[in-house]
Structure to design on (556 residues):
């Protein structure tokens, strides 16, 4: 009885979590006429209320065709998102893995204090660094460039924090044994650290991807030229008048994130959980 | 033998540390210095920038809203996600599917859901229609104090799965034998929860709170994308304020505001860290 009862709130929860996807998917498959009829009350002052069907009555791929074939600016934005995300992930990957390994298995002085410093930085919201980021980019003449945005994001301490937890779980005895056998620092890292912490690296990448694919604050503040904008900035500017394009564009922006989510769900969960495990 | 390895590992941290110092810490300390100066003339200003920030009504509203938002959201999220985790924990089937569904909002970019927000919370939108159907009073949700609760809902929607997975990690760390022993002694469902589950989850609580606060800063994305620079007063957050200061080039206020905020978070992290360790 108890088991049956608790399925009801769970079902409601699942519905709330998944509905936005159904909404976007259904909307993107509607024709122009149908979508306008559904959203009439929201778009103008026609009175009444908007309604939205579960499935389009006359499904068509017209909106996808239009946005993919007839709007070159959409491609530019999509490509901008890809470039920014790839740049940030590559940088975080490079610096983050090394730092996480150093923090997890190093024995240098002030290690704990430095790590606390990283955690502290991790907790700061964007606006704390808004002015200093601006002055930095201004000084480096990197305002309004993708390089500037990438530079601001690659030293984010969050992936270091996640990967640190995984590297920490690599057995210390293994590391010690390798060192005793005369392995160099680099060899220990390469042959023991990397394989042992690989799931941590993937977890951090999945979390970072989801984060940076919808990055908003930095591009919004530091990118003036519209042609440099990522999708996350461009999408909300498509008004409801152009609902058809907005739906299709939203779904296309969603697809890479969903693919990463589905492919990396186990790592995503591991990454989330890593933070909860006490040392 | 140990001696030989003193200082080892620092080389790994060095590139990242240099980056963090050069591109984050040093520029920030420059901002701290600037917060005591007049931006226009570059002369010493003492605490006048801070006085200006604290007496600014927009700052008071934004700081108040941000604090209220944290105070409402974090406990609500912690309780709801714990409930979801407990509901999921006892299930034998479909756990993976349910988890995927509940985690799914994490993958949805803010820019994509904004469309739904606009259609859902418009005065004549889907929510209005539903309320009308149920003979309940509607509202222009985004332009009334309801806007704050929409923000709360959006935060819960996005982060429930994240926190639920964290709680599940905590739950799976509790040995089953504890429950078996308690049941053998005649403990009921509630007693098990009260005297075994809750105390054992306490260490997770601190971590989960910290991460929930961290994620709460990102709710600005939805708020900004759906409502723009000047949303309803009840959802005007510190990030909105800083954006507007940035647009007006109010360097003095931004510098002092950033230092105040960093100070508050610094204290909070140190306090939580105490509890964490």
């Amino acid at each position: 009885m108890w088991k049956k009862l608790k399925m009801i709130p769970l079902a409601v929860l699942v519905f709330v979590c998944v509905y936005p996807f159904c909404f976007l998917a259904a909307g993107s498959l509607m024709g122009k006429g149908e979508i306008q009829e559904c959203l009439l009350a929201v778009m103008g002052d026609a009175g009444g209320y908007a309604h939205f069907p579960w499935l389009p009555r006359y499904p068509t791929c017209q909106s996808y065709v239009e946005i993919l074939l007839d709007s070159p600016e959409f491609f530019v934005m999509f490509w901008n998102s890809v470039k920014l995300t790839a740049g940030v992930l590559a940088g975080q990957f490079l610096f983050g893995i090394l730092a996480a390994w150093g923090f997890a298995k190093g024995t240098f002085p002030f290690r704990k204090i430095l790590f606390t410093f990283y955690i502290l930085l991790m907790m700061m919201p964007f606006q704390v660094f808004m002015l200093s980021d601006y002055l930095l980019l201004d000084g480096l003449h990197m305002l309004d460039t993708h390089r500037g945005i990438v530079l601001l994001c690659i030293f984010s301490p969050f992936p270091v924090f996640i990967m640190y937890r995984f590297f920490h779980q690599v057995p210390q005895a293994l590391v010690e044994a390798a060192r005793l056998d005369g392995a160099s620092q680099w060899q220990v890292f390469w042959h023991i650290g990397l394989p042992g912490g690989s799931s941590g690296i993937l977890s951090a990448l999945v979390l970072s991807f989801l984060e940076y694919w919808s990055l908003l604050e930095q591009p919004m503040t530091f990118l003036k030229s519209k042609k440099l904008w990522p999708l996350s900035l461009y999408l909300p500017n498509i008004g409801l008048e152009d609902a058809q394009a907005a739906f299709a564009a939203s779904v296309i922006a969603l697809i890479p994130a969903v693919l990463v989510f589905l492919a990396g769900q186990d790592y995503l969960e591991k990454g989330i959980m890593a933070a909860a495990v006490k040392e | 033998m140990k001696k030989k390895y003193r200082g080892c590992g620092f080389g790994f941290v060095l590139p990242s540390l240099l980056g963090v110092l050069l591109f984050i810490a040093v520029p920030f300390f420059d901002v701290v210095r600037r917060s005591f100066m007049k931006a226009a003339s570059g002369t010493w200003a003492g605490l006048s920038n801070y006085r200006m920030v604290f007496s600014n009504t927009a700052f008071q509203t934004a700081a108040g809203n941000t604090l209220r938002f944290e105070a409402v959201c974090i406990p609500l999220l912690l309780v709801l996600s714990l409930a979801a985790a407990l509901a999921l924990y006892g299930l034998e089937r479909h756990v993976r599917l349910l988890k995927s569904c509940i985690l799914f909002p994490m993958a949805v970019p803010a820019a994509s859901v904004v469309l739904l927000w606009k259609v859902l919370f418009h005065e004549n939108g889907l929510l209005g229609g539903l309320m009308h159907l149920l003979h309940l009073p509607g509202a222009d949700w985004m332009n009334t104090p309801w806007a704050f609760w929409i923000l709360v809902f959006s935060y819960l929607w996005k982060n429930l799965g994240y926190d639920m997975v964290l709680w599940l990690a905590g739950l799976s760390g509790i040995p089953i034998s504890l429950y078996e022993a308690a049941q053998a002694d005649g403990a009921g469902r509630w007693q098990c929860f009260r005297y075994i589950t809750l105390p054992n989850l306490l260490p997770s609580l601190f971590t989960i709170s910290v991460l929930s606060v961290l994620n709460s800063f990102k709710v600005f994305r939805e708020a900004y994308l759906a409502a723009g620079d000047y949303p309803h007063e009840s959802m005007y957050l510190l990030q909105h304020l800083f954006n507007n200061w940035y647009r007006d080039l109010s360097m003095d206020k931004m510098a002092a505001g950033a230092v105040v905020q960093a100070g508050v978070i610094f204290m909070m992290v140190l306090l939580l860290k105490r509890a964490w360790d």
Observations:
- The two ends of chain B are 30 Å apart (CA to CA).
- Chain B is about 75% helix and 0% strand.
